[in-house]
Amino acid sequence: MKITVSGKQMNVRQSLKDLTEKKLAKFDRFFGEDAEATVVYSCRHDLQYIEITVMHGGTIFRSEEGAETFQNAIDEAIDSLERQIRKNKTRLEKRLRSGAFEVMTDDLDEEKEGEFNIRTKTFPIKPMSVEEAILQMNLLEHQFFMFRDAETNEPCVVYRRKAGDYGLIVAE
């Protein structure tokens, strides 16, 4: 697995990079050599945060955790990723076909418009079923996910409702 470690407005010590690589090595049994992990460390609100994103075969696994120390945060994030993988292993094997959807690419631009800071993300939208879109949204731990319907080829959005179920927005 290729691992990229960086810090947001901070430098990451080599010992922390080594610890990160050691902890992420346990995922080698789930992913092949072509998997990529991006780890971002940051400090906010008197807590130390870690964000881990693992991309493999078009599927994205993501965890963001905060704790008193980076060591505790990485342990929590690793546990969270492992739970996601185990929880979705059966679904991933049954529902996903090879190359079902591509990995999101983060082309982030921060622009200043009036008093709003707008963060723009662009990513390729591959056709998929509603179930695959919901699975991907849950793996990313997002509240919504945009995709192209495999049957109609129209852009759609799935989202998590307050009641816990899901909604689907379809273009007319």
| Overall shape | globular
In CATH, the topology of the largest domain is named: Double Stranded RNA Binding Domain
The major beta sheet can be summarized as: 4 strands, mixed
Would you identify the regions where 5 or more consecutive residues have pLDDT less than 50?
A: 95-114
CATH class of the largest domain: Alpha Beta
* Cα-to-Cα separation, first versus last residue: 42 Å
**Mean pLDDT over all positions:** 80
**Class computed from helices, strands and strand pairing:** alpha+beta
Say which CATH homologous superfamily of the largest domain is assigned.
Answer: Ribosome hibernation promotion factor-like
Number of helices: 3
Q: How much helicity do the residues have?
A: 25-40%
**Neighbour order of strands in the largest sheet:** 1-2-3-4
The figure for the number of domains is 2
User: How many E-type strands?
Assistant: 10
Question: What's the short version?
Answer:
The chain is of the alpha+beta class and 172 residues long.
What does this structure look like?
The chain is α+β, with helices and mostly antiparallel strands and 172 residues long. It has two domains: 94 residues, Ribosome hibernation promotion factor-like (Double Stranded RNA Binding Domain, 2-Layer Sandwich); 62 residues, Sigma 54 modulation/S30EA ribosomal protein, C-terminal domain (SHC Adaptor Protein, 2-Layer Sandwich). Helix content is 28%, strand content 37%. The strands form three sheets. A four-stranded mixed sheet has the order 1-2-3-4. A four-stranded mixed sheet has the order 7-8-9-10, covered by helices on one side. Strands 5-6 form a two-stranded antiparallel sheet. About 12% of the residues have low confidence.
